[in-house]
Amino acid sequence: MILLILAAALKLLFAHELTLVKTGEGFLLTAGHESTLQLDPSSLKTLCLDSEGEKKRVIVEKVKEGILFKGRCGLLAVVYSEGKYRAFLKYVVNPSLLTKRVGLGFEILAKEKKTPEAGKKITFFVLYRGASLRGVPVAVNHRVVGRTRLGGEIRLRVRKGRNEITAFLLRGDTSLETTLLFDAR
Amino acid sequence: MKKFLPLLATPSLLFAHHGVASLGVAGLEGPGAPLETSTSATIPEGSFLFYLKLDHSPFKKYTPQRDDETDLYQFWIFGLGYGVKSWLSLYLFVPYNYKKKEDNSYNVAGFGDPFVTAVLGFKYDEGFKLVPPDESLDELMDWHFTLFGSVSLPTAEDRIRNSAGEIDPAMSLGYGKPTVTVGLSATKMLTEKLTLTADASYMKFFENDYGDFKYKFGDEVRMNVAVAYRLLTVPSRKLRLDGILEMNFLNLNRDEENGVKLEASGGKILYTTFGGRLYYKTVSASLGLKLPTWKDLNEEGLQQGSEGKERYRLIFTFSVLF
Question: How many residue pairs from chains A and B have C-beta atoms closer than 8 A?
Answer without folding.
Answer: 50
